[in-house]
Structure prediction request, 201 residues.
Amino acid sequence: MSMRKYIPAILLTLGLVVWFQEVFTIEWTSGYCSNQADGPASAVYGMPLPFIRWSMVSSMEYLWMPAVFVLNIALLFAIAFPFVSWVVSWSQLRANRKGNVGFMRWIVSGMSSLLILNSVIWTGFQIYMGIYKIPVSNIAMENFETYSQFRPVRFGLKTLRYDCTASEFWFPKNKLARKSRSIRLTRYKTTHSLTDVFPPV
Prediction:
């Protein structure tokens, strides 16, 4: 019985979290976005962790990390559940005093079902359109950035723009320029050392 009383709060929290995840997001950037010397970089999105970015192949194809997508929902659920549970308990207590407990449960169940159904339909539509088409274990561009280098730059609606946003705050240009020169110097030394060992024919 003690577990059953939390079911309305669990369903409402899940519905709110999935809806929130589909409507709002955080845009992330990396150092390579501020210094795209070897080709373009796409924007990265996800909340609270980055999990999706444009594949740069087709306009409606995105790389996404299913494990991080599920983890994001779990993290948001853990954050929101205590507050939602308190609100539901408080509302049921007030409804109990007025004799409207059944009506209150009907409202909570209806809201939860509507939010979850809306999120399932929207996610299914995105899968059908090809947005969630290329599951990967890591959305970072190999040899240019790592997942741990992503930094948040913007919170807003989940528009999933293509171009990434450079950040002077997270990645100052002077520092990136020195790093870029160091990488080019390393490549130059490697190329010339190989030429010395294996002279051209």
